[in-house]
Amino acid sequence: MPPPADIVKVAIEWPGANAQLIEMDQKRPLSSIIREVCDGWSLSGSEQFALRYADGPQLYITEQSRGEIKNGTILRLAISPARAARQLLERIQSHGIDARLEALKELAKLSADPTFATEFINMEGIGTLARLVESGTHFGEMLAFTLTAFLELMDHGIVSWDLISLSFIKQIAGYVNQPMVDVSILQRSLAILESMVLNSHSLYHRVAQEITVGQLIGHLQVSNQEIQTYAIALINALFLKAPEDRRQVSAQHPLHTHVIRGNRPIKAEMAHQLYVLQVLTFNLLEERMMTKMDPNDQAQRDIIFELRRIAFDGENDPTGTEKRKAMYTKDYKMLGFTNHVNPAMDFTQTPPGMLALDNMLYLAKVHQDTYIRIVLENSSREDKHECPFGRCAIELTRMLCEILQVGEFQLPIIFLFYLYSLIEFICVYVCLKPEQVMQVVREQITRALAMKPSSLDQLKNKLRGLNYSEILRLRQSERMSQDDFQSPPIIELRERIQPEILELIKQQRLNRLCEGSCFRKLGNRRRQEKFWFCRLSLNHKVLHYGDLDESPQGEVPFELLSDKIPVSDIKSVVTGKDCPHMKEKSALKQNKEVLELAFSVLYDPDETLNFVAPNKYEYCIWTDGLCALLGREMGSDLTRSDLDTLISMEMKLRLLDLENITIPEAPPPVPKEPSSYNFTYNYS
Description:
Strand content: 5-15%
GO cellular component, one term: membrane
Structural class: alpha+beta
Keywords: Apoptosis, Cytoplasm, Membrane, Phagocytosis, Phosphoprotein, SH3-binding, Transmembrane, Transmembrane helix
Subcellular location: Cytoplasm; Membrane
GO molecular function: SH3 domain binding
Helix content: 40-55%
Number of helices: 27
InterPro entries: ARM-like, ARM-type_fold, ELMO_ARM, ELMO_dom, ELMO_domain-containing, PH-like_dom_sf, PH_domain
């Protein structure tokens, strides 16, 4: 007979004594259980004690969190959070250096516990830590532990960041600006400044006065990726809170050289921070892209005058108004604008709006010789061979915004910092050909980006290789392959094969679920990562899952997974923003990467098992497998890709004997019936 649901069997440790094995009744008050445990070891004053987990983060157990205790859990009897906070507060203010260091080290560890943090903060502990930092007398490990404890305590959101003093901000900023500072101190200082900026509008202005993006760029050039990550996170925070007229990206070269093209693989948190920076930067481009030019705005018209001045070297304008208008009209025609009289009208369509004019001015100023050469070459051509710089630049900008999905935040990271350079290069590379070749240009860019070049130079080389003749060759090859597979007999064969291939994919997905996968629990990036494992039983009837101390190597035995869900109890599978854990954590809604990897299993009565896949492949495997278990269609991108690949391979294998044989569109006609069925075959 299984034990009652309210009873959990646990072991409780105490230093220097044998562990107690008890059956904890979850209906009894926690204080009563602690009193009973203390009596077992003859300890008086049970109100001065509490229970903590012996493994992992070793959090205190409260009435609210006791429901998470599982059978077989090892607990530890410890002094209560209030008593621990009081003792640590006294020790960190003692005169003994060694005693203070040990106290700060223990405080840094305990501060992650919300129960302890509440008690310590209620005793004005944060103010004490702030004064220790402001005094400037702590260095090395002692300062690192102080900053760690301060940051962990503030992360609980119990007190407001607005209470932080200006002297504290100056001290923290000083650690960031120092050329030689301990790595652990620098990392925590960057994290504290980031939290200040994100959590308080008033503190943003104070931090911005002490720290600039230019000062943070130096931290991108170090070899420590953790420092780089925290520096980019602070840049993102300053970018996000800055007024619109002060938002700019000035860290392109260090980011590309030392982070994106560095020798080390980019970790998940770094990739997320780069993604956030990409989103913030593209918000600026999107604004320019969707801004129409005001023909009556003199400042905007001056940009067009500047384009004309640079192209024609400030030639002396005629004195007469009519002659001047005629010359301007002629010049604007040579520059390739559609509206020769008022070129401002060319920029009233969005997209690309003012972004196209920005790019034209960038090319004219940064590569002036190239710009002048293009315009002068065009001025000597006949009308039918015109090379319209203006129209091509506008169309190319619009095309690139569409291909790179500006405003939808899908741009690959490497191109984030080179959009202007990319458009400049495309303008020169295409030699500003007329509009009829724009479709070829689009195909060149799309195919080159699909090859995932790691730098702008690689992109240039791939574009050079995709010349017009190569595009025609690729088109013809694809067309021939497509035509072969569009005939009715081939389509019928494909329809017959598809159910077999889908069943094969389904079995592969279920086999992968039986092997299981490790998932990361969502939490604060500064704390140790937590993992849990989930796998399907071999008979496909039960999902087994449980927590792990670290990421496993290989399969995890079913015996180590303490929890399970019968497949028959599963009601549905939801993904993305429909997942309960995505609705609960509002901060995660801004993380598109996490949102795209989230899915949840809803099961009876009203419970959920929430997942965040480690990558897109595992996301597709698990969502497909769970849908297969429920008898639903597998609709992931991976299934579509696998289906196309396997069907194509199977059909090619079956059609090997028909190579170079034309397959008729219709079956051969059925011959007429014989006039008589009275015939035999002579075997002699």
